[in-house]
């Protein structure tokens, strides 16, 4: 990806207003604390470089999926601004809106070398639709745009692809590193072994899995993503979460796997519950016969053992998405088993996705794998050779 314009091509940064789209989508606990700051630490490298050059740094980011709702306290980036300040080593101010009067006032108060983090861009209704009016408003305070949110590079949104239509656009240090490293790993055959896919966001992951199925020897599926495949096969899933809009895409993955000889492996057992209260009844059930009113929230022990065996024997492993709701103790065992297996695997192991990498770092085993990406679906797309929309406007 050497054809991307980088920070070196920005020229003199002194007094230059720069819009930075960073990836600061990190897990936040119930008290509002940042649970894993890996993406914040990564983003700080670009922000610090611009601050050191004397730029006025205006940072855009998202947190969660508020869907254009303007008042979602749990989606505020205020705790992220506090942790980002620590990561860059100086104050990063926080504006309580994105394109409103508070943002404008915060930007006007910037001095050379200062930075401000505007409020969650997904509070804006036009963000997901790549609304051009919003893109123009986001671009208005800047004279250059630095895209550094690799984890959002697969999305066409006002803050990812839209701003680049209105300002000269450049790749930040995270995007430059990710595209180079993952491109090299792809060329070395990283996606030709075992792909492990879990979590949710089926619509984002399934197209890449269909392409990866043409080169991978096996795809092991867990989490809510597995429910889509199981539902497509007619399984009884009780009250488990199923993205029914993705059933056709799951069928396309099955067809691609069958055509290329890639083994598509689904759970045979799951850990389920009848509720999320302290007196809930937790049980192991057949993956295709979850009881009425019950919710599958983890792969079962039989599946975890099978997946771990395949991972430990693989020459290449790509993993995006936890095996279940690992944040809750009763449903952590599947993801823990995968972490132990990738840590033991002697081959090339590439891990990505916010939840997956948070779980890996919390285990203390991140150093045991070959590469940890800040992106999930973007990582899969790049390894599959798919175009990433947000990189289009960055090409020299």
Task: Describe what is shown at a glance.
With about 400 residues, the protein is an alpha/beta fold. It has helices at about 40-50, 80-90, 100-110, 130-140, 160, 175-185, 200-210, 225-230, 245-260, 300-310, 335-345, 355-360, 375-385; strands at about 15-20, 55-60, 90-95, 115, 145, 170, 195, 220, 235, 265, 270-275, 280-285, 290, 295-300, 315-320, 350, 370. It folds into two domains: about 5-175, Rossmann fold; about 190-385, 3-Layer(aba) Sandwich (Rossmann fold), CATH 3.40.50.1260.
Entry keywords:
single chain; 396 residues; alpha/beta; Rossmann fold; 2 domains; six-stranded parallel beta sheet; 13 helices; 17 strands; 35% helix; globular
Overall description:
With 396 residues, the chain is an alpha/beta fold. The chain has two domains: 171 residues, Rossmann fold (3-Layer(aba) Sandwich); 196 residues, Phosphoglycerate kinase, N-terminal domain (Rossmann fold, 3-Layer(aba) Sandwich). 35% of the residues lie in helices and 16% in strands. It contains 13 helices and 17 strands. The chain has a six-stranded parallel sheet. The chain has a six-stranded parallel sheet with strand order 10-8-7-15-16-17, sandwiched between helices. The protein has a three-stranded antiparallel sheet with strand order 12-11-14. The termini are close together.
